[in-house]
Amino acid sequence: MAAQSTEQKPQASDAKKERADKIDFKMVTFSLAGKEYGIDILSVKEIAKAGRFTYVPNAAPFVRGVYNLRGEIISVIDLRIFFHLPAERKADEALESLLILRVEEHVFGVIVDAIDKVVGISSQAIQPPHPIFGDINVKYIKGIVENGGKLYIILDVARIFAPEREEERKAEEAEAAEERAAPSRARAAERAPEPVAGEDVAATFVRETLGTFLGFRVSGLNEAWFEARYAEWKRERSGAEVQLRDASDAEAFLEGFSSPCSGRLWDEDYADAVAAALPDISAKNINVWNPGCGKGYETWSLACVLRRRYPDARVKIWANDSDLLAISMAPNMVFPENGVPEWIEGFMTKGRNGLGFSQAVKDSVFFEFHDVLNSSPLPPLDLVVTRDLLSFLAPAEQNRLLGDFAEKLKPSGALVLGANERPGGAWTALSSGAVTAYRKE
Amino acid sequence: MRVEYINPFVEAAFNVLREVLQSDVRRGELYLKSTSMPVMGVAAIVGLAGDVEGRVLFDMDKPTALKIASAMNAEELKTMDDLVKATITELANMITAQAVTKLHDLGFRFDLTPPAIFTGDNMEVSDADVEALIVPMETVHGKIEINVAIRERA
How confident is the model at residue A176 (pLDDT cuts 50, 70, 90)? Predict the structure, then answer.
């Protein structure tokens, strides 16, 4: 709204006046590393100058210690370190500027560079945060507001200090890693010099180039694999150029990422491993979602596995892919005789052109030309099988889809990802075999 | 949208357009869309029901609609009158009906609702919940976009 009114020149002054008239949001402003920030005054209990914090062993690096505020012990957090901004370390006796915040029941002390003043604005004037704005993760930013010629970034205190802070911080770190991997962000280059624990700059570039050449995104989902592979890659390339110069380098790097039996019908060993990983399901109807099914080998193999694993149930598989050429051949796949793994032959019938799947198997599978990034209307699901799809989506989409899976799965439902993908904290592993199924917590 | 449904619609659109216009028709690249989209000016819509639910929308701009209607009626039509509207509606009906017939032969049961036509400027269709398959068709008279949104009845 504010952006619009400044564009319309003649009304700008009116709009501004009107805005100034309605002060309904007050914030305490302060600076961190030379930039101006604000926090809603309702969450600020008081401001103080304090020092000599009591060090707490084993606390996160951004926790400076605890402080006795008139008999109440509060923990003190250095916001600059929390946001990876440069923090000058004062002498022990020196006093730091402290904002005492109250978030729900908890009281925190927050160290900032300098506390400025209280500024009243109209909440209408707050603009949504822009992803490239500032050095702070967008999800901690409530908005941006201009006042007196200065731009203030309003922090969302509840998001930063909510009880699940620890997890959020982890998520933030994972996201920061993803941001480094996202090639389109100019910021990535700026951030690169930041010290990243245990990782050199070349790794950052490898992450980026994987995204550029093959659309592969390193994120919390596949971080473990990436790190192991990167170490191996460095050994393989000892002396030579570690970075990926073209798509074929990137493909060589990703070799070994894809799950077993990708792009062909599953071997019996792998099929058994999948069957072993799946939970017992007593329901009569089993609904399965298989996004990113590609040419359909995975879906057909899965259909056969499920018929063996749950012989009494009616299985329905929705298989999607957004590659029309790949999926358009999937419904009517025909194989040469002797060209299929033996265990699958039992599910096939001989046709004019070769072996095709039997009608019963065919009836259990729906192939859909569908983009998972669009909404997917599906009934409650018992299983989601999506191997090596999420790693090729932007990190934000990965999280959104994982959320979508959690929402669509029944409480007893299970999720199967690619061999080198891990769904993260909200999911528990059901088994520890060659294939792992996960259940939402 | 099920893969089996795609071809019947593409084929029906291609055949019907080529037949009624007596000229070459080219099919553009198919793609999926889920956000709201602007309508070019004339939109004929046919609803589908049965094993599935959904709709097919035929979208073109006014000059294209007039030229197509002129070609189909073998007379020069200059204004967006009832005849033009009826002609475009009929075209939508013919294409959808042929697609549904093909689908019926494949064992899928669809019913049609009577077509309706919308004309006007700056129109937009939104149904964020259903993803639509866009089939662009290039005719000598201009572009027609066929927008098919069908989903299985859950």
Answer: low
